[in-house]
Every structure is written in structure tokens, then in C-alpha cells.
Amino acid sequence: MSKTLGALPKSMSSITRAFRPVATRGLAPKISGHTSEPFNSRSISTSFWHTLRTKASSTPARRFNATTSHQPPAPEPPAEDKGKQSTAYLGTTKRLPEFSLANKVIVVTGGARGIGLIQAEALLEAGATVYALDKEPEPSADFDVVQKRARKELGGRLHYRQLDVRDDQELPRVFREIGDEHGRLDGLVAGAAYQQEISALDYQAKEATQMFAVNITGVLMTAQAAAKQMIRFGHGGSIVMIGSMSGTVANRELISAAYNASKAGVLQLGRNLAMEWAEHNIRVNTLSPGYTRTTMVTELFKTHPEREGFWGSQNMMNRLSRPEEYRGAAVFLLSDASSFMTGSDLRIDGGHCAW
């Protein structure tokens, strides 16, 4: 055995010698007419256990030295979290308090209509004060309905600000104004984006630049403006950037290379911002919807009726999603229910990308 193992440390050699008779008595097969005895732990002398304990206790434990690691140091947890096991929700009379957004101030870009407005209403129901930012001079009629409901039924406030996310001068000013008004900013849904169907062979540089200016640069600048206010007030916060399943796959028979590339960029942007801003207690995640029956998509089906059945058939649920199916996801990502989630993509696509 010594030839096979080479030179063993002294602590190992004593253990090896102690085990040799055990292997011979208890494990050896019948050889030359001798029958091996059954293994009996009592046959090991007490001196062996004493030797094993002595050697183990005298050998210093190998410790991990963080200074030798190439990984960046993790951000320090809040002082009140160190060495404690949270029991905040044990025995409480509240119902799912971690989903509450009471007293939170949240901005939703692209919030004048569609999924953005529907998510804004969900945030209002959870207790938040919501600012919808959109490039439209006036919000939709549906916005007025939600705004009245917020005031009369929910006891909250839904505000509207006209803003183009490409305006890098006005964008930070509006966010600072909101922060000054409330003394805080807790959340952001960065949903402003648009889609184009143009063959990659026909795309003009101007069109591609415009697409990326809204869907990538606009998202980055919006997140930056929100993060600066969160850092300014020192409360941390949660940022949700709206991606798409199209950032993960190429959509069959849907010619939109630039759009899909922009959404893939949003997913990667989310991971990197999460890494940079974790030290400020700012979480950054992306939410990727699948094909959704919005008002605009319904209008599209009038021109391309074949797409309605085809798009739905490409996922496991065999249907299109509804805008309201993204309400709960927005509340989850912006609330304490997702307090240990950052740098992730929450894809809700009916299993489209899982085929």
C-alpha cells in the first residue's frame, strides 16, 4: 500500500495502519481454507479511536481565505440582519404582508395604456402611489377610469407625466421632481418600448438606431434616473425592466431582428445593473411576457388573421396570454415577496421557450 499511496503524512499513516486488520478480518474473501470473520466494530481497539481523535484535533482546519478568491466580495447585509433568523411573519394577523406596497412610490414608463396601465392598477391595489410616464400628450380613456378608481376606491393616487425616455435631460429632472415630492422612490417598471417588423436585409441604420434608442438606451437611462433617487434617499428599491420571450428565442415567421436583439439586450442589462447596484440595496430583475392579446395585437390580427391561431399554438398552453396575467408578477417583483431575487428574468410565456 505504501508504494501505491506514496509518502503519507504521519497523521494518515497511523490511520492506515489501524485500518489494515479491519480490512483483513472483515472484508477479505475466503482464501486457502480460511473463513473471514464477520466485521465487528468492537474488534477495533480503543487506541485507534483515541489516535484518530487526537490527530484530527491537532490538525488545523483548512480555512477559506476570501482575499485569494477572484470573485468580487458580496455586499454586506444590513446590520440588523446579521446573525438573526427572521420571524417577522410568524403569528402575524396580517395576510401576506410581504406583498404590500403601502407607502411605496413607484414609476411605470409606458404606463398610459396596455400592460403598463394594467400593472399600474395592480400596484395601486397593493397600496402604492404610482406615476405613469408615457410619450402620449394625454393618457387613454382607460387611464382615466383607473385614476378615478384609485382615488375613490383604493385611497391611492395615479399621476401622469408626459415624457419621452429618449430625452436624457428631462428624464432625470422628472424623477428628481417625484423624489422631492415624496422624499423617496421605491420602484420602477421600465416598460416603454415599441416593435417593428422589417426584414434584416431592408433595415435602415436610422430605423435601427431609433429602435435601440428607445428599447435599450431608454431603458438604461430610465433605470439610472430611478437608481440615483433610490441611492439619494438611502432606502434601496426594486427595478423591473420589461423584456420579452423574444429576447431568448427567434420568433417563427415574425421578422423583427432589431426588436429581438433589443430585448436580449434588456435581459443582459438587467443582470449587470443588478450586480452594480446590489451594494445600494437595489434589486434589478426583468419580466419577459410571451405573445399577449393587447389592443394593438388585436388590431394586428385584423390584418393578419392567420397569426392569431399560429401564435397561440406555439406554446404549451395553446393560447395567447392576457394582459392581466402580468399583474401579479409586477407586484411580486416590486414587493418584499421577492426580497432575495435580483439579476433574474421572470419569463411568463405559457411554456413557449421550454419546447
TrEMBL record:
Feature: compositional bias, Polar residues: 56-71
Single GO MF annotation: oxidoreductase activity, acting on NAD(P)H, oxygen as acceptor
Matches recorded under InterPro entries: NAD(P)-bd_dom_sf (IPR036291), Sc_DH/Rdtase_CS (IPR020904), SDR_fam (IPR002347)
Annotated spans, Disordered: 56-86
Keywords, in A-Z order: NADP, Oxidoreductase
Gene3D superfamilies linked to this entry: NAD(P)-binding Rossmann-like Domain
PROSITE patterns found in the cross-reference section: ADH_SHORT
Family recorded in the similarity comment: Belongs to the short-chain dehydrogenases/reductases (SDR) family.
PANTHER family for this protein: BENZIL REDUCTASE, CHAIN DEHYDROGENASE, PUTATIVE (AFU_ORTHOLOGUE AFUA_4G08710)-RELATED
Full protein name: Short chain dehydrogenase
